């Protein structure tokens, strides 16, 4: 709270500026806008800057500087009689004969006298005013208000307490006011019957300033009106955080704080889990491609920003995600079976809805896998995908245009393992390569030309690193099988030459190096005497 002082207001060195205030019979008024305060400072500051203190006597200062025309410095002007000084605003120039010829040193500008600047404001009927409230701010700027004791004591507990404990005095001073404009406006609101009409056109930041001052003054009616305003008005950008922090700092009860905070908090116990599951279900079942794609991007972004849900709901969220994964896998397998029926020629001609559903379920699984990988809980998904032998067998019976998105799931798993985002067991990695590497090789040419998001180098690096995590014998089996495919398809097959080089060194070079190092160590071993 600002410092409080009771006493008389000194009239010396003050400049009073009367600001016109429109006062209605019920006390409605027009507070001086910020432009008025700034205009007052600008109008008074140049006047103070023009003042210069009298120059010191020649006997006390060996070097003095006088403002004169640059051309007159070359001539020797006639002696000028000293000018009479009637006040501090007069400037005095020493006689030319006292000036020393040669270069003069530039002295620092004299300190401007700190003259108090004051604005006078009146509220209500000025003839019946019985109290002068002075708000003192920085740089000697102050506001003197003509007010009424009964109105201030009735609306503000701060004024009621001070006026009841002090001896009768027509003056009251509040020092170090950080926001005098809002102090004036808040005190003016004590004269208004309908404060909502005064606040309705104000901005959210300004109402927060009024709320802060109203709390300091104990103006509960104003605080309640500010909270009603904040509960109804939209918050834009950073205003939400400012409103919440300001409302949470309120120390008074019974002012309607809860309606404001209900906008950002819920009283329902543990609601995010069911809500998140419902959102995921709506997105996964959407048939509108554009809306589904945009919402998938948005939900993925929001989940990345908040990877751990509040209230310890992370485990329940993971369960919900895996339930969605199993549902999508079951639907995808069902669509593959339908598309791979014996009447394949007829089914391929009329499977546009089936192919569309396959693409939809594959895209849903890829989205769910991305969410699980971001949360570093995708190991179970790798186990589920590696166990889809039937789906991999049916994969060869469908045209590439219908099945290629399924290979995108396999590619994303290899990338995750290569980056260390997924850490499945050795058996799971081996099963994954045995089941899904060949279908990925078969669709590789289509993936390069038909998928915009497909990054060949990243996928090839992930496949190679996954292979190199297996025992050396398994590496050899998989890489030799890949070599046969690569020599037939060329660039239409994943380029695993880096992994092949590592396997080669492990197989043919490393044993020789280890054997050679062993021989050197045995030769350097000192013989123990018998």
From TrEMBL:
SUPFAM superfamilies: POZ domain. Keywords: Ubl conjugation pathway. PROSITE patterns: BTB (PS50097). Pathway: Protein modification; protein ubiquitination. Residues 129-199 form the BTB domain. Residues 42-112 are annotated as: Disordered. InterPro entries: At3g05675-like, At3g05675-like_ankyrin, BTB/POZ_dom, SKP1/BTB/POZ_sf. Pfam families: BTB, BTB-POZ_ANK-like. May act as a substrate-specific adapter of an E3 ubiquitin-protein ligase complex (CUL3-RBX1-BTB) which mediates the ubiquitination and subsequent proteasomal degradation of target proteins. This is BTB/POZ domain-containing protein.
């Amino acid at each position: 709270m600002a410092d409080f002082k009771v006493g008389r207001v000194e009239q010396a060195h003050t400049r009073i500026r009367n600001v016109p205030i429109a006062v209605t019979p019920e006390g409605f008024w027009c507070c001086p806008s910020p432009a008025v305060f700034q205009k007052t400072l600008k109008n008074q500051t140049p006047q103070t800057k023009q003042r210069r203190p009298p120059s010191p006597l020649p006997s006390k200062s060996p070097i003095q500087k006088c403002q004169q025309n640059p051309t007159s410095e070359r001539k020797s002007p006639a002696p000028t009689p000293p000018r009479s000084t009637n006040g501090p605003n007069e400037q005095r120039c020493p006689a030319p004969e006292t000036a020393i010829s040669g270069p003069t040193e530039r002295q620092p500008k004299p300190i401007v006298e700190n003259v108090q600047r004051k604005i006078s404001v009146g509220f209500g009927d000025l003839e019946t005013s019985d109290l002068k409230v002075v708000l003192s701010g920085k740089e000697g700027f102050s506001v003197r208000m003509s007010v009424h004791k009964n109105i201030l004591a009735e609306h503000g507990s701060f004024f009621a307490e001070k006026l009841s404990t002090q001896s009768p005095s027509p003056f009251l001073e509040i020092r170090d006011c950080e926001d005098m404009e809002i102090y004036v406006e808040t005190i003016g609101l004590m004269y208004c019957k309908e404060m909502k009409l005064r606040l309705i056109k104000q901005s959210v930041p300004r109402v927060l300033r009024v709320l802060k001052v109203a709390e300091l003054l104990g103006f509960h009616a104003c605080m309640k009106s500010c909270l009603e305003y904040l509960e109804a008005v939209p918050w834009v950008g950073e205003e939400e955080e400012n409103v919440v922090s300001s409302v949470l700092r309120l120390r008074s009860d019974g002012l309607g704080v809860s309606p404001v905070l209900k906008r950002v908090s819920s009283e329902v116990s543990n609601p995010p889990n069911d809500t998140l599951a419902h959102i995921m279900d709506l997105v996964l079942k959407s048939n509108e491609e554009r809306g589904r794609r945009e919402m998938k991007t948005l939900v993925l972004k929001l989940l990345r920003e908040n990877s751990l849900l509040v209230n310890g709901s992370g485990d329940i969220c993971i369960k919900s995600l895996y339930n969605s994964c199993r549902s999508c896998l079951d639907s995808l397998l069902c669509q593959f079976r339908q598309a791979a029926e014996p009447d394949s020629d007829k089914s391929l001609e009329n499977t546009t809805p089936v192919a569309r559903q396959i693409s939809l379920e594959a895209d849903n699984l890829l989205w769910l896998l991305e969410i699980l990988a971001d949360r570093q809980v995708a190991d179970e998904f790798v186990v589920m995908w590696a166990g889809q032998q039937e789906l991999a067998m049916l994969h060869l019976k469908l045209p590439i245009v219908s099945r290629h998105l399924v290979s995108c799931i396999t590619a994303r798993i290899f990338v995750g393992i290569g980056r260390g985002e997924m850490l499945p067991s050795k058996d799971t990695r081996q099963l994954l390569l045995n089941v899904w590497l060949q279908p990925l090789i078969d669709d590789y040419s289509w993936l390069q030309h038909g998928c915009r998001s497909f990054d060949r180098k990243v996928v090839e690096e992930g496949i190679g690193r996954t292979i190199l995590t297996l025992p050396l014998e398994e590496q050899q089996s998989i890489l030799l099988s890949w070599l046969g495919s690569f020599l037939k398809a060329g660039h239409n097959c994943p380029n695993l030459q880096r992994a092949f080089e590592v396997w080669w060194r492990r197989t043919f070079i490393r044993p020789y190096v280890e054997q050679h190092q062993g021989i050197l160590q045995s030769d350097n071993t000192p013989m123990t005497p018998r």
